[in-house]
Amino acid sequence: MKILVCISNVPDTTTKITFTNDNTQFNTAGVQFIVNPYDEIALSRAIELCEGGKGTVTVINVGEVATEPTIRKALAIGADDAVRVNAAPRDAYFTAFQIAEYAKANDFDMILCGRESIDYNGSQVAAMIGEFLDIPSISIIKKLDFDGTTATIEREIEGGKEVVSVTGKFVASCAEGTAEAKIPNMRGIMSARTKPLTVVEAVAIDELGKVTKFETPAPRGAVKLIPAENAENLIGLLHSEAKVI
Q1: How confident is the model at residue 106 (pLDDT cuts 50, 70, 90)?
Q2: What's the rounded Cα separation, in Å, for the pair 39 and 45?
Q3: C-alpha–C-alpha distance, residues 139 and 126, integer Å
Q4: Whole-angstrom Cα distance, residue 130 to residue 197?
Q5: Does residue 22 contact residue 130 with C-beta atoms inside 8 Å?
Q6: Which of 142, 110, 137 lies closest to 126, judged by CA?
Q7: What spatial distance separates the first Cα and last Cα of the chain, rounded to whole Å?
Q8: How crowded is residue 76: how many other Cβ atoms within 10 Å of its Cβ?
Q9: pLDDT for 183-202, tens place per residue?
Q10: Options 3.10.450.350, 3.10.180.10, 3.40.50.620, 3.20.20.105; CATH of 2-219
Q11: Per the database record, which ranges form the Electron transfer flavoprotein alpha/beta-subunit N-terminal domain (predicted)?
Q12: Can you give the residue ranges of every domain in the chain?
């Protein structure tokens, strides 16, 4: 079994977000980057499925050379080898296309990724990969088992859960519960230095969309505390100021 796991290089959750070039570009100065937490969940489940010599796990990242420390962390967690598509990931469409092109040439049994990246929260890449490869795509899964031929997948839906079985190649985006994120140990960290990291050039594709501007949320205003016995005043403010009723 061969599993491809897509990983994103994202800012640490404590990062203070700012923009440059007239608010058209994320400011990376002084930012600590990490493996996208949802992608870590996908990677952990892939490693579990391949334990005991049942298969191999390849991680793939679309990014420039600065993303290699993040890729090495994924190797330290337990991936067997890694691929970096040498290009800035300009959007989900571009990223999914690059991953799909690599997958076409390397015959993976399944492709896993996180439900979304914590920087853009788009939840688009998995479905786009499935469309490019013409294989089933299952979004935001909570459980994944594989018996060698058929994958049994659970998803949460309104009021319950949905169980899906898939035979053949597929792509799935993993959410919390699919696996516990693994912490690399010293042996993993040392072995990551020598595991293969292949760099491939991006395949040309038309740019269908472009970010024109980023905006940060307005700062929070002052809090008004209304005594519990003054409900009439509270209702008036909700009408006149907050305009929520």
Answers
A1: very high
A2: 10
A3: 7
A4: 25
A5: no
A6: 137
A7: 56
A8: 21
A9: 888 989 999 999 999 999 99
A10: 3.40.50.620
A11: 23-209
A12: 2-219
